[in-house]
DNA sequence: GAGTGGTCTAGACCACCTA
DNA sequence: AGGTGGTCTAGACCACTCC
C-alpha cells in the first residue's frame, strides 16, 4: 500500500524519514501509557495497516526502539514493552562490578527524604529554575551488609507529584517512577571523578576522611530525552570498579 | 522434548544469518589489508554481485559495520574504511572532558619505553602467558602544559614486531598501530576506580601524594575482538571528568 | 547525467512459540 | 495449525556528489 498521507515533505525544513516518524508515533504511545510496560504491541502487520505504511518500515522503527531498550522482541511470541525490573534493564544503568566475583544489586537505606530548593547545579542538570521545587533523597547502599556508596537523588517536583508523601522508597526507584508516574528512564549520562571522602560521607560509609571515592554524577532522561533525575553517588571503589565498553 | 532452561537461540551448530556471514567476509578484508583505512569499498551493487547475495543483504552487513565505526558511508560518494585520525574515532576512546570548556586532546611525553615480561595482570588482560614478552611504555600527558595523567601501555611483543626500535612514539598510537602493523583498534573495555596517588605518580603529576586519582584500566581490542593493548591511566580529575552515555 | 547510498515497498520463506 | 518475528530478495524512487 502507498500511504495516502503526504509522502514526500521535501519542502519541509525538518524532514524526517518515514520510519523515524513511525518511531516517534510509537514512542508517543509509550509515553502516554497506551502501551504499558510488559504489554504486547500489535503485530508488525497490524501496525503497518494502522499506520498505512509497509511492514518493512514498521520493522525499521521497531528495531530502532529495540536497540534503545524500549522494546523486547521475541521470535514467535511478539513485541513487548520493556519492563524496568528485568535484570538486563536493571544493569543497563548500574555499572559497578566487584573486582572478583559477579555483579549483584546493592540494598538501600534511606537516610533523608523531603522537599528542597534546587541548587544551581541541580537546576542546570534538570533544566529547571534555580530555587525551583525539588525532592531530595539521600540513601546508603550496601553489598553484603557493607556500605559501599552514598547517593543523593534530586527530582523535579512537578514531574513527581506526591513524592513527599511516600512512606517507603523501594530499592529500584526506576520501577517506582514507571509504576507511579508513568515515567520511563530511557538513557542517562554519567560523569566520573575521583574525590576525597568528606567527613560526612566518611562517617556514613565507615571509611577514613580523605579516602579516595568515585564520584558518579548521573542525569537520567525519559523516553523523550528530557532530564528527570539527578543522582550524585560517592562510592568506595577499593574492591569495586566502574565498567564501560567503548565501541 | 525436554526443554531445559532458556537457551540462547543462536546456540545452534554453525548457523549464522547470511548478512552476518557477509559481514565476517568483509571484516576479513579489513583485517588482511585488502581495504586500507581511507579507501573506498566497491558499491553495494558490485559487492552483491561479487558475493552472490542481494543488495539488501550487503546493506545490512555494511550498516552493522558502520554502527561499529569500522566504515563511513556518505550518500552520493560511497563507503569508506574508517581512519583512526578522524576526530570521531579519536574521541571514541577518549572520554576525559574538562568540567568547563570543550574537550581537547592532550600532549604526550614518553618517559620510558622498552621490553619487559608480562605480569600476571597484564598476561590475563592480554590473553598471553605470564612472563611472556611485552613492550611497555610510560607516558605523561598534559593539557595546556599541565600534566594531568600518567599512563602505562603494555603491548604483546608478537603483535608489534620492532616496536623497541622506534625512536619516536607519536601522540596518537592507534594511528601508529594501524599504519605500521595494520592493527585496527575497534573496541575497548574500561574499568574505573578511585585511588590515592602513589609517591611516584605524584612526583610525575606534580600533585600531593595521596591525592585522589581516577584509575582507568583499558583493554583495547582489534577488529576480531582479540585484546591487543592494555593501558593503565592515572588521572588528576580535579578539573576533568570521565564522561559516558548509557543507553 | 551517471553513480552512489538512503528510503520504501512487496512478497517469499524460515524458525519459533502457543494452542 | 496458525501467528509471530527473522531473513532474504527484488525493484522502485529519492537525495546527494561528481563530472
From TrEMBL, chains A, B:
PROSITE patterns: HTH_GNTR (PS50949). GO terms for molecular function: DNA binding; DNA-binding transcription factor activity. GO terms for biological process: negative regulation of DNA-templated transcription. SMART domains: HTH_GNTR, UTRA. It holds the Pfam family UTRA. Gene3D superfamilies: Chorismate lyase-like (3.40.1410.10), Winged helix-like DNA-binding domain superfamily/Winged helix DNA-binding domain (1.10.10.10). It comes from the Bacteria. Residues 16-84 form the HTH gntR-type domain. InterPro entries: Bact_HTH_transcr_reg, Chorismate_lyase_/UTRA_dom_sf, Tscrpt_reg_HTH_GntR, UTRA, WH-like_DNA-bd_sf, WH_DNA-bd_sf. Keywords: DNA-binding, Transcription, Transcription regulation. PANTHER family: MANNOSYL-D-GLYCERATE TRANSPORT/METABOLISM SYSTEM REPRESSOR MNGR-RELATED (PTHR44846), MANNOSYL-D-GLYCERATE TRANSPORT_METABOLISM SYSTEM REPRESSOR MNGR-RELATED (PTHR44846:SF1). This is GntR family transcriptional regulator. The lineage of its organism: Bacteria, Pseudomonadati, Pseudomonadota, Alphaproteobacteria, Hyphomicrobiales.
Amino acid at each position: 500500500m502507498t500511504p495516502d498521507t503526504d509522502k514526500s515533505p521535501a519542502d519541509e525544513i525538518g524532514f524526517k524519514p518515514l520510519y523515524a516518524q513511525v518511531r516517534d508515533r510509537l514512542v508517543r504511545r509509550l509515553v502516554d501509557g497506551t502501551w504499558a510496560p510488559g504489554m504486547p504491541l500489535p503485530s508488525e502487520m497490524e501496525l503497518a495497516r494502522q499506520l498505512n505504511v509497509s511492514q518493512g518500515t514498521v520493522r525499521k522503527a521497531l528495531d530502532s526502539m529495540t536497540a534503545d531498550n524500549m522494546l523486547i522482541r521475541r521470535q514467535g511470541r511478539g513485541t513487548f514493552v520493556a519492563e524496568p525490573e528485568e535484570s538486563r534493564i536493571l544493569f543497563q544503568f548500574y555499572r559497578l562490578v566487584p573486582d572478583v566475583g559477579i555483579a549483584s544489586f546493592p540494598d538501600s537505606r534511606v537516610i533523608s527524604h523531603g522537599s528542597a530548593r534546587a541548587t544551581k547545579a541541580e537546576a542546570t542538570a534538570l533544566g529547571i529554575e534555580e530555587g525551583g521545587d525539588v525532592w531530595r533523597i539521600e540513601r546508603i547502599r550496601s553489598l553484603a551488609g557493607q556500605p559501599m556508596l552514598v547517593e543523593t537523588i534530586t527530582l523535579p517536583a512537578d514531574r513527581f507529584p506526591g513524592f513527599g508523601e511516600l512512606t517507603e522508597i523501594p530499592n529500584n526507584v526506576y520501577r517506582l517512577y514507571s509504576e507511579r508516574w508513568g515515567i520511563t528512564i530511557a538513557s542517562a549520562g554519567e560523569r566520573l571523578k575521583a574525590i576525597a571522602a568528606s567527613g560526612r560521607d566518611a562517617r556514613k560509609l565507615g571509611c577514613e576522611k580523605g579516602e579516595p571515592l568515585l564520584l558518579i554524577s548521573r542525569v537520567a532522561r525519559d523516553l523523550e530525552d528530557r532530564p528527570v533525575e539527578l543522582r550524585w553517588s560517592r562510592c568506595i571503589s577499593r574492591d569495586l570498579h566502574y565498567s564501560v565498553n567503548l565501541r
